[in-house]
């Protein structure tokens, strides 16, 4: 069974909603994403590229890389509000390919908020080299989180 939180992840009462959100996110386990840091406006994680994640060029498929970045984006923009915050518009720039067996590290930082809106940047790294840059606009909703 995949562990979605790294051993040093600490949650505070202010970030408890992010823990709950991630615990209900089945895509993290499916893709082997581990959340390694959760702080206000900041989330980090890791994911190792497997053969099943690769396209016909033996590099990580863009949609999977996007999903990794999106998961970190969700954490960063939900750390400072108890009301669900969702993506309203996002884009990603693929800079370099990710290869099978590589462990990627992602860093998400919410850099701006105004009203119910936010701007969050996510960088995906292979070692020290950035391989993707994701930028997302978020919107805090007025509805409660969904229940299972």
How would you concisely characterize the structure shown here?
The protein is an alpha+beta fold.
What does this entry look like structurally?
This protein has 148 residues and is of the alpha+beta class. It has helices at residues 16-23, 26-31, 62-77, and strands spanning 34-39, 42-48, 85-94, 103-114, 117-126, 129-140. A six-stranded antiparallel sheet has the order 1-2-4-5-6-3.
What characteristics describe this protein?
HotDog_dom_sf; 6 strands; Acyl-CoA_thioesterase_PaaI; 3 helices; six-stranded antiparallel sheet; hydrolase; 148 residues; PAAI_dom; globular; alpha+beta
By DSSP (H or I, 4+ residues per run), the number of helices equals 3
Strand residue percentage? 35-45%
Task: Please list the strands of the largest sheet in the order they lie side by side.
Answer: 1-2-4-5-6-3
**Parts with pLDDT < 50 across at least 5 consecutive residues:** none
Main pleated sheet? 6 strands, antiparallel
InterPro entries: Acyl-CoA_thioesterase_PaaI, HotDog_dom_sf, PAAI_dom, Thioestr_dom
Domain Thioesterase: 59-130
Keywords: Hydrolase
Protein name: Hotdog fold thioesterase
